[in-house]
Write a structure and sequence with these properties.
about 450 residues, N-utilizing Substance Protein B Homolog, Chain A, alpha/beta, globular
Length: about 450
């Protein structure tokens, strides 16, 4: 069999994610460019590699039933290749014989010469066992048709601790857990934003392949083509941004305030998506944005995103360590979090994150929100935002800071987003992939009394 560049690229993507701790969405374009893959080949690489990453938990459970030794003893490269093979058999229109033969050829080329033949034989035997049953039959064999958290974790390929955290976040709507986990496994279409002051929403919808978004008055959905093909993306008039991110930024701009510093602050601005929207909204209201980013390379991304037409001030440093003194009308603090709300966009992140990460991020989240309280002017407002619905990263942080600063008023955030339905979580906004087709963004609005 001849060389298969697309499958070799997919295996390489899984390798760099595993070995280099790379993000798939950042590593993939480089791999495609280096191997000169585009069009249908690039689409195949994306589908098979992202599918293998996303469904890794379920596929490993199936494969463990088909190997004669402990699954943990199989070498990592062969595991990656087998996951690619299983995804082709279970979820793609690839004939079984082609999926099996191409995967055997893949490990034969990728492995060391001395063990290549034995590895290919092992892969052939395992994938033949996998293909002996349909997807639904495997679900029955694994006995994961129920709604217990353990069964749902395997059926929808999520770590158990994430399933438990999402169940807690759903609260009284825990019955939606299966739908939420399922939504995490559906690739999201690119969501675009008409950046205020640069392009109107109507102009965005006139672009080829763009349809109206579902919720945000700035949004469009790209239903045909790739974002990089649009000149307006390359020039910064339009951004690629989830509607949830657009909505929480809009909500901050809509809060009635009584302070008049005419300065807005984005405390965690990199890579610049929300900052670009906030910058345009600020200019429309006669205000100037200050954007802070801790890491120099991400600060440069903010500069690139905002462009030369922006009047924003970009600072490099840790916003939680800066000595603020009530300088800003509006403060956005989009804190570092586990990203459990964006699992559909980042297929590898569910396996990379650990329960200990929640506790590890807690001091940073509180330090940033506490600094935001010092930064906001009397009469001004703070938006606390996470791309995670985890209770410990959302409500618990807000309530802890409000205990330390009893003067703060928790505003009714859902009332600032009247176009969105079924997003109320008490006084907070909680968006969901299965309800809204967005990332699971959380928003709390806190006002400092005049």
């Amino acid at each position: 069999m001849s060389t298969d560049p697309a499958r070799e690229a997919a295996l390489e993507l899984l390798r760099v994610v595993r070995v280099d701790d790379a993000y798939a969405n950042l590593a993939l374009p480089n791999i495609l460019r280096e191997r000169k893959l585009s069009g249908r080949d690039a689409g195949f690489v994306t589908e098979v590699a992202y599918g293998a990453l996303r469904w890794q938990g379920l596929y490993d459970a199936i494969l463990a039933q088909c190997v004669s030794r402990d699954w943990s003893d199989v070498d990592p490269m062969t595991k990656d290749a087998l996951r690619l093979g299983v995804h082709q058999i279970m979820a793609m229109r690839v004939p079984t014989h082609a999926a099996v033969d191409s995967t055997c050829h893949l490990v034969r080329r990728a492995g060391t010469p001395g063990g290549a033949k034995a590895r290919a034989g092992f892969v052939n035997a395992v994938l033949r066992k996998v293909s002996a049953h349909t997807f639904d039959e495997w679900i029955d064999i694994l006995n994961v048709n129920g709604d217990s958290e353990q069964q749902l974790a395997i059926r929808w390929s999520h770590p158990g601790w994430i399933v438990r955290a999402l169940a807690q976040a759903l609260g009284e709507k825990r019955s939606e857990l299966s739908a939420l986990l399922q939504a995490d496994n559906i690739p999201a279409r690119p969501s675009l934003v008409a950046r205020p002051g640069r392009m109107t929403h109507d102009e965005l919808l006139d672009l080829p392949g763009v349809e109206e978004g579902r919720w945000s008055p700035l949004a469009g959905t790209l239903v045909d083509g790739i974002p990089e093909s649009l000149e307006e993306i390359r020039t910064g008039l339009v951004g690629v941004q989830d509607e949830g991110s657009q909505l929480v930024t809009l909500a901050l701009s809509r809060v009635p305030i009584t302070s008049h510093t005419q300065r807005w602050l984005d405390m965690c601005a990199g890579p610049g998506g929300k900052a670009a929207v906030l910058d345009g909204l600020a200019m429309q209201q006669g205000a100037t944005l200050v954007a802070v980013e801790q890491h120099p390379h991400r600060a440069q991304l903010v500069r690139n995103t905002l462009g030369e037409q922006s009047t924003a001030e970009i600072m490099t440093g840790d916003a939680s360590h800066h000595q603020w003194s009530g300088e800003f009308d509006r403060v956005l603090v989009d804190v570092p979090c586990t990203g459990l709300g964006a699992l559909r966009r980042r297929p590898e992140s569910r396996w990379r994150r650990k329960l200990s990460d929640v506790a590890g991020l807690a001091p940073t989240q509180r330090a940033l929100l506490n600094a935001a309280v010092e930064a906001v002017a009397p009469g001004g407002v703070i938006a606390y935002v996470t791309c995670s619905p985890h209770f410990a990263e959302t409500e618990l942080v807000v309530h802890d800071i409000c205990k330390a600063h009893p003067e703060l008023v928790i505003l009714d955030a859902p009332s600032l987003l009247p176009e969105v339905t079924d997003a109320r979580r008490g006084q907070f906004v909680q968006l969901w992939p299965h309800r809204h087709g967005t990332d699971a963004m959380f928003l709390a609005l806190l006002q400092r009394p005049a």
